[in-house]
Amino acid sequence: MPNGHHRISGPRGSELQVVVVGGGVVGVCCAYFLARRGASVTVLERDEIGRGASYGNAGLISPGHPPINRPGRVVQALRSLGDSLSPLYIEPRWDPALVRWLWAFRRFCTHDHVEHAMAALAPLGLRTVEMFDELVGAEALDCEYRRAGYLEVFDTGPGLAAGREEAAVVERHGFAPEYLDGPALREREPLLGPGLEGGWAHDEGSVVEPYRFVLEMADRAAAHGARLRPQAEVGRIRTESGRVTGVRTTAGEDLAADAVVLATGAYSPGLMASLGCPLPVQPAKGYHADRRRDDLHTPDLRVPCLLGERAVFCSPMESHVRFAGTLEFSGRNLDLRRDRLRQLDAAARRYFEVDDLSDPVSEWCGLRPCTPDGLPVIGGVPGYEGAFVATGHAMLGLTLGPVTGSLIADLVVDRTAGLEIHAFRPERFAGS
Ligand SMILES: Cc1cc2nc3c(=O)[nH]c(=O)nc-3n(C[C@H](O)[C@H](O)[C@H](O)COP(=O)(O)OP(=O)(O)OC[C@H]3O[C@@H](n4cnc5c(N)ncnc54)[C@H](O)[C@@H]3O)c2cc1C
After folding, report:
1. 432 CA distance to ligand 1 centroid (A)?
2. Where are the domains of the chain?
3. Residue 351 confidence class, pLDDT cut points 50, 70, 90
């Protein structure tokens, strides 16, 4: 038995067999915690492990970060129609699912909802702070993990005012952002320019190289007995009399399972619909541009920074600084648009003291799975015993990956979660 774990049994008396569909950060974390609990786990990933949204994200663990829903977001979204330099961009085109999603999103852009969403997310975020320390320590994860905190900076009055409102919400839910004026921010990160109005230090934040984190977690899941199978796409979830019996791959292979966990990120709606559970997850494309730290024309930051008005994250990693951001609603595609990448460069020039900017060594885009209420979807799928889903983490999938994995393991093994997860129930969108 790997690492001396005991095996647990499934409903038919034999080992509890679990198939996790999707090998991104969420699926791999589910597999890790399930294997640690003694389940017999197989991860099926249609591509390579960790090459989806989890590959090139900003690497920031930001446990107190609120969801994208904010009062005024809809007006901002409408203004962005056709403006390719806005951080939030909606491509003008006819897409009924997106129109329905935006309509639903609009309902969730209120002060009351932001408060409700933070109340639901905060216990997961607070658990996350210690969880990364524990995981990285116990499993000796080699993933460039640093408890560096991060700075959220603004260079306009309205930006700072919006930041202040957000900081107040976050504070009400157990986090402690520290206000810093321009000079104090520059003391912490000397490369920031002189025009800053102010911002906040989020000391609970940390940073990892996200792909390495996924690969390391996949390796530890395997050490606990999980099987990871790349190039295996699930085409169908098999069910019988209201319970899950396994999956069929698109290559026609049948795998039996007592439980199936869908962790298919932005691609989740199809398989969820086949279980009769509509999931309005829209893909929100984000980009990164990496610049070598040893290039003279790269702002070689000490501290990760969130450039507030432009919503661009800058994360110093071992060999490069990653600039990542933009929220583009243009469908389920991975087209790399130059004008969106230029938005990242424009942000770097605006907030940092740089005369010239080095050429990127990597440019990439990925799809965040976004729900209209800004909350993830974590729970059992109603109507099918043994069907579970873990997706919709939007900008927080890396941050909340481990806690989501542990919650799913609790649900599959104990049938109850260790934290309150009612707000994340999959059926909340039925009939909307
Ligand atoms: C630019 C950018 C910056 C970001 N920055 C941060 C950040 O700093 N911090 C943070 O916490 N989050 C960040 N995020 C969000 C984070 O990357 C996502 O929330 C997270 O990666 C989602 O993980 P996932 O496992 O759900 O999805 P994915 O990583 O996309 O994994 C889903 C996997 O499922 C597979 N799959 C789909 N369908 C099937 C099928 N039928 N059969 C088998 N496999 C299937 C896919 O191939 C894919 O590998 C950022 C995102 C972007 C784009």
Report:
1. 25
2. 15-54+212-277+374-429, 67-203+282-370
3. very high
Atom of ligand 1 nearest to the CA of 287: 1
CATH topology of domain 15-54+212-277+374-429: FAD/NAD(P)-binding domain (3.50.50)
Tens of pLDDT along 27-48? 999 999 999 999 999 999 999 9
Superfamily of domain 67-203+282-370: D-Amino Acid Oxidase, subunit A, domain 2 (3.30.9.10)
Overall residue count recorded for the chain in this entry: 432
Q: Give the per-residue pLDDT at 6.
A: 67
Quick: pLDDT tens for 161-174.
999 999 999 999 99
What's the 294 CA to ligand 1 centre distance in angstroms?
Answer: 29
Determine whether the shortest distance from the Cβ of 405 to ligand 1 is under 6 A. no
**pLDDT value, residue 5:** 57
The C-alpha R_g of the chain, in whole angstroms, comes to: 21
288 lines ligand 1 (CB under 6 A): yes
Q: Which of 21, 364, 398, 407 to mutate to test the pocket of ligand 1 (most atoms within 8 A of CB)?
A: 398
pTM recorded for the entire structure:
0.97
What single string gives the DSSP state of each residue in 245-298?
EEEEETTS-EEE-SEEEE--GGG-HHHHHHTT-----EEEEEEEEEEETTSTTS
SS3 355: coil
86 lines ligand 1 (CB under 6 A): no
Indicate whether 155 pLDDT > 90: yes
Nearest residue to 97 via CA among 87, 105, 107? 105
* Distance (Å) from CA 54 to ligand 1 centroid: 4
Mean pLDDT in residue range 391-395? 98
Handedness of CA 327, 331, 332, 337 (dihedral sign): negative
Considering Cα of 26, then 31, then 37, then 42, what sign does the dihedral take? positive
Best residue for ligand 1 mutational test, from 20, 30, 33, 46 (most atoms within 8 Å of Cβ): 46
Cα(109) to centroid(ligand 1), Å: 24
Span 118-141, pLDDT tens digits: 999 999 999 999 999 999 999 999
Summarised one tens digit per residue, pLDDT across range 292-331 is 999 999 999 999 999 999 999 999 999 999 999 999 999 9
Per-residue model confidence (pLDDT) at position 1? 45
Identity at 60, one-letter amino acid code: L
The finding on whether 368 has its CB within 6 A of some atom of ligand 1 is yes
